[in-house]
Amino acid sequence: MVNLFWADEGGLPANDRGLAYGDGLFETIRMEGGCGVLLSRHLERLVRDAGRLGIALSRGDLRAICSEASARFAGSFDGGDWVLKLTVTRGAGGRGYRPDSGMKPNLLVSSGALPPMDYPSGVAADFSRVPITVNPLFAGIKSLNRLEQVMAARELDDSLFEVIMSNSEGHLLEGTRTNLLLKTKDGWVTPPRSSLAVAGIMREWVLERLRDRGEQVSERPLMPEDLIGAECLGLYLLNSVLGVVSVRSLAGHDLPVDGGLATICNLLETLE
Amino acid sequence: MVNLFWADEGGLPANDRGLAYGDGLFETIRMEGGCGVLLSRHLERLVRDAGRLGIALSRGDLRAICSEASARFAGSFDGGDWVLKLTVTRGAGGRGYRPDSGMKPNLLVSSGALPPMDYPSGVAADFSRVPITVNPLFAGIKSLNRLEQVMAARELDDSLFEVIMSNSEGHLLEGTRTNLLLKTKDGWVTPPRSSLAVAGIMREWVLERLRDRGEQVSERPLMPEDLIGAECLGLYLLNSVLGVVSVRSLAGHDLPVDGGLATICNLLETLE
C-alpha cells in the first residue's frame, strides 16, 4: 500500500514528489514510550487529508507501521517521551506536476527528541510579519507546503516561543506550529476551522472536551485587539506534541495567565 | 557554499527541509547539448529568489556546477535537447520550522528527457477548478511549495495541454507550468508580475523582446472573457523548456491561432 522508508537508513528517492513539489503531508506524534498520544486521531486525520489530495492510505497499515516504529525507536529515548514523524508523499516520478495514475505513496518514518518544554510561567509571543494564505481546497491540511511557517519561524529567537500569523483580512489564524484558544468572559473563542492553514489534533481534542463539559466555545475570527484587549482572560497555544501553553506576553503586552488555566490543566489530565 | 548531491547517486538526506516543508526552490533549464537556454537568467532568478527566502547562493558556483552537470548528463541524450533541474533547499535539520542559523544549503542536480513537444496546430486548454493563492512575500518564486499546481495538473489528460488557474478575485494568473500572453488589437497583455505564483524566465524574455521591438505590452489582470471573447487575437503559453505554445481551443471555445504567431516565431529565432 505504501513504500516504507526508515529515516535512519536514508531518505526518499531523488525524484520523490514530496521534495519536488511538497506533494504530500505529515504528522508529528508525541510518543510516551511505545504509545502515541492521540494516535488514532492523528492517523484518522492523515488518512482523511491524504484522501483530499487524492492519496489513498490505509489506517490499519499505518497503525501497524507505528507499532513497528515504536519497537524500533522508543529504546533510543531512555523510556522518555519522544516524537514520531510520518511523512507521506504521493510517490516518485510523474510528468512534471502531473502525477501518473496509480502511483504508490512513499512513507518516511523518523523519530526525534521532544523539544524543550519548561515554561511554568507561560511564554512570550509576538505577531508575525509574514502573512498567511489559505487555499480553501487545502484548508486545515498539514501538507508539506509550509514555507510560510518557515519564514515566520525565522522571526523567532530563544526568548520568543511563537509568532501569530494573520491573513490578508487581518484575522489572526494560528501560530507557526500552534492553534489559538482564547478565554473571554463569554467563553472560549478560536478561529473557524475552515479558515486555518493547519487544523491541529490538540485543538480538536480540547474543543471537544470543553464542549463535553458544557463550556461555551465559539469559532469566529480573532483580531489583535481581541488578544491584547481587556476581553482576554487568557490566551493558549495548542499543539499535539507540546500540549497547551499559556501566553504571558504578546507583542510586549502582559496577558492574564490564570483565567482558564485550571480548566485546561484539568482537561489535560484526561488526555490519553 | 552548497552541499552538492547528484540525483543519479541518490536523494537528499532524510531530514532535508525541502522535503519536510518545501523550504527551497528550483529551476528547470532546457539544455541544447552542453548549453543551457537562457541559463544566465535562470541562475540570476535562482540566486535572487533564494535571497528572498534567506538562502545565500553564489552565481559563479552555480554556473560551475551547471558545467559539471552538462559534462555528466548531456551524453545520455544522444546529442539532443534535455532538461537540467536544480533543486535548492535551505539545508537539513533545524528546530521544526525554525532553521538553525548558518545552515548550508543542499543542491540536488538531476537531468530528464524533454517532454513531448509536437503540437503544430496549437493545443487545447481549459480553466482549472483549483484556485491559486499567492502570498505577496513569495510572489513569482519558483519555490518547492507547488501543491496547487499539482492538484490542477491532475485535471489534465492526454488531450488537454494545460489548465489556467485563477485567484479568489477571478483573475486568470497562469497555467500550472506556463505564463499567459494574450494578443489583442491594442497590443500584448499579460497578468502583472506581482500577482503571479511563478514569474517565468520565458515570460520575462519574451516581454523584453516585444518591448525592444516597439510592440505595445501591458500588464493587467485577465478575466475569462478576455481570452474567449472577440478581443482575443491569440493566446500563448510561455515556458522556458517548452518555448511558446499557441492555444487553439480554450474550454471548448476555438481561439484564433495566427494573430501573433508570426511575431512570436520571429522572436524565438533570436533565442540563444
Strand content bin of chain A: 25-35%
Average pLDDT over all residues of chain A: 95
Work out the count of structural domains of chain A.
Answer: 2
Segments of chain A where pLDDT lies below 50 for 5+ residues?
none
The CATH architecture of the largest domain in chain A comes to Alpha-Beta Barrel
CATH homolog superfamily of the largest domain in chain A: D-amino Acid Aminotransferase, subunit A, domain 2
CATH class of the largest domain in chain A: Alpha Beta
User: Quick one: overall form of chain A?
Assistant: globular
Oligomeric form: homodimer
Radius of gyration of chain A (CA) equals: 19 Å
Tally of helical segments of chain A: 7
Task: Give the helices and strands of chain A as they follow along the chain.
Answer: EHEEHHEEEHEEEEHEHEEEH
Structural class of chain A: alpha/beta
End-to-end C-alpha gap of chain A: 29 Å
How many β-strands of chain A, per DSSP? Answer: 14
Largest sheet of chain A: 9 strands, mixed
Helix content of chain A: 10-25%
Largest interface: A-B, 55 and 55 residues
